[in-house]
Design goal:
By secondary structure, this protein is an alpha+beta fold. It is built from ten helices and nine strands. The two termini are about 45 Å apart. Keywords: Transferase.
Length: about 300
């Protein structure tokens, strides 16, 4: 295990401690009701599912079937649950709430809504917005499908995000200074001012609803020559094929627009990008030592005959 992994584990555990404490999940009863947290969750499943079985509830809540069975027995003894035969499977009865059970659930639901509402309303608006965004992200991570990479065109705000994310990424990974951010800002500003859809294009890669990469196709300085610019992939999205999809889209568009050659500039330390270019058929045509972004680097120009 790495130090970064240990820190990730500590971060999630710290969240769990704060979350369970602030919502009172460790109390003997949940939201002042006569139910424990697990009992409240089983009651919720009974109220919101149509003819559930004990086995279905146990699977949905990832609880021990024996624990669910004991809870349902207590509910039955208190007159909260009714059961009827399931013609398709005699051992698994269909479950439902009695009138008393529905009343108990309604009281629990009202208390929970009031409790959570009070917690949210007590937060500063900025904290509340961050909390709700984080809660939505957590739901998506645990309940959503695996992230799918989608390429799309530019939307308002993308140019600023591309500039910011690339500046932060290369500062964090390579220690590049603000000169790189200024360079990217100039490139995207020129693209916006001079874009010609018959000669230029750009793509944003999204996964899980967030930007995870970009690439730009711009006309070059000589007839028939285009430039591939501003390829980047977020660190956590590497391994999903984002860079390959972006490079392939750029090459295909350059061919479709009738360009004869596609050039790009990079530096030798960006080894992952260089491997992408090599696999796509680019050939290194020039190397030049340079001093930029606060470091001694080696500029490289790569070209692909189309």
């Amino acid at each position: 295990m790495t130090a970064a992994h240990d820190q990730d584990v500590a971060t999630l555990r710290a969240f769990n401690r704060v979350y369970t404490s602030r919502l009172g999940l460790l109390d003997a009863s949940y939201d002042g009701s006569p139910f424990t947290l697990s009992e409240a969750r089983i009651l919720y499943e009974l109220a919101t599912r149509t003819d559930p079985t004990a086995a279905e509830i146990a699977r949905a809540l990832r609880l021990d079937p024996a624990q669910v069975s004991r809870t349902l027995k207590r509910f039955s003894e208190r007159g909260l649950v009714t059961a009827r035969e399931n013609p398709a499977h005699g051992r698994h009865q269909w479950l439902g709430l009695t009138d008393d059970g529905r009343a108990a659930f309604a009281a629990l639901e009202a208390n929970t809504r009031a409790s959570v509402g009070s917690l949210i309303e007590g937060l500063h608006p900025l904290h509340r917005a961050r909390l709700l965004d984080a809660a939505a992200a957590i739901n998506e991570v645990f309940e959503g499908d695996a992230p799918e990479v989608v390429l799309r065109g530019l939307q308002p705000g993308d140019l600023g995000l591309v500039t910011a994310r690339q500046a932060m990424l290369y500062a964090g990974e390579y220690g590049w200074n603000g000169d790189y951010e200024a360079l990217v800002a100039g490139i995207v500003a020129d693209f916006h001012r001079n874009v010609d859809p018959s000669q230029d294009d750009a793509w944003i890669a999204e996964a899980g609803g967030r930007m995870v990469g970009s690439i730009f196709l711009v006309r070059g300085d000589a007839p028939g020559v285009a430039k591939l610019r501003l390829l980047y992939v977020e660190a956590e999205a590497r391994g999903l094929g984002v860079g390959r999809q972006l490079v392939e889209a750029c090459i295909a568009r350059a061919r479709a627009l009738g360009y004869q050659r596609l050039d790009l500039w990079t530096v030798s330390v960006l080894t992952a990008a260089r491997r992408l270019y090599e696999r796509a058929g680019f050939v290194l045509t020039r190397e030049t030592p340079s001093r930029q972004f606060g470091h001694d680097l080696v500029d490289q120009v790569w070209s692909l005959d189309l």
